[in-house]
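Discussion board: Methods & Data

I've been asked by a reviewer to show the raw model output for two of the constructs in my manuscript, not just the figures. I'm not sure how much to include, so I'm pasting the format here to get opinions. Each protein appears as its amino acid sequence followed by a line of discrete structure tokens. Is this the kind of thing reviewers expect to see in a supplement, or should I convert it first? Here is construct A:
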Amino acid sequence: MSGGRRRFPPLQRAQLVELACLEPIAEGLHITHWTGQDLARQAVADGIVDAISPRTVQRILRGCDLCGAPATPVFRPWSVRSALELCGP
């Protein structure tokens, strides 16, 4: 692909969302919140994608309402966890 945005298949997007919903400590990281850079690095390390930019991570998660405004790129996985708890058994 030259010059355009790389498209990620639904499975990779879902795996990225799943990663964002984990606490960073579960991945062995000593941070309290994910950033786009942290998630991009971890997605590559986990073999989810070969390469991805922090901006693309933010775009994917913003599409799922998992990240704050562009000026505050901290992810809000608790919004998904809370929704899952409300829909639980």
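Construct B, same format:
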Amino acid sequence: MGESPLWRCPRCGQRFVARNMPHSCDVRTVDEHFAAASPALRGAFDAFVAAAREHGDVTLNATKSRITLQARFRFAGVERPRRDHLVAHFVLTRPVRSPRLSRVEYVPPSYYVHKLRLHGPEEVDAELRGWLAEAYQVGLQRHLTDPDWPRERRPPDWVAVPREVAEAVARGEDPSTVR
């Protein structure tokens, strides 16, 4: 199965796996995001990106509110820097439970957005690098071609789910079918 070419937004130039995906065309630079941030936060971001790039090419997409990391699919990112931390995230096809994670959100059909705070580059350790290695494979869309790739379509009760997904579960429906 060959990869289809990425669609490029004619307005902002960002690339996507499908045509007309929702996004912000308010493109910024990475330096703009970190202009007023502490060196520790820029160091945490640079370490986060370097950890992802250990596995292959990564495109950075900086917009007004976040910077995302993309292989084919956007698999990780950070929100605009806060006063003393970054809110980073990575996407897997299974939920991970860890005290380091501030939130895990389910996105049908089988994606889990894992959020954590980073205060400095030392927090990009072996555990986080392992999660980013797996997220990079999700970014390559390996989960679509590998029948043995781990997928969890029913979120455990400790995972945050959108209201419409929770309602489908309450009705006994498969949450992975909610769009």
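Answer (T.O., handling editor elsewhere):
This is acceptable in a supplement if you add a one-line summary per construct. For B, something like: The chain has one domain: 25-145+156-177.
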